[in-house]
Amino acid sequence: MQRSYWGISECPFGVQQRDRYFFTSPTHDEALARLGFLVEAGQSLGILAGYEGTGRTMVLERFARDMRRQGHSVCSINLVGLDQHDFLWTLAAGLGCNPRAHDKAFPLARRIQDRLRADALTDRTTILIFDDAEQASHEVLTQILRLLKTHSCHLTLILAIESSRMARLGTDLLQLSQLRIRLEPWDHEDICQYLQTGLAQVGCQRSIFEESATERLAELTDGIPRWVSQLAELALLAAASQQRHSVDGRIIEEVYQQLSASFEEDLQATY
Question: What's the CA gap between 189 and 203, in Å, rounded?
Answer without folding.
Answer: 21
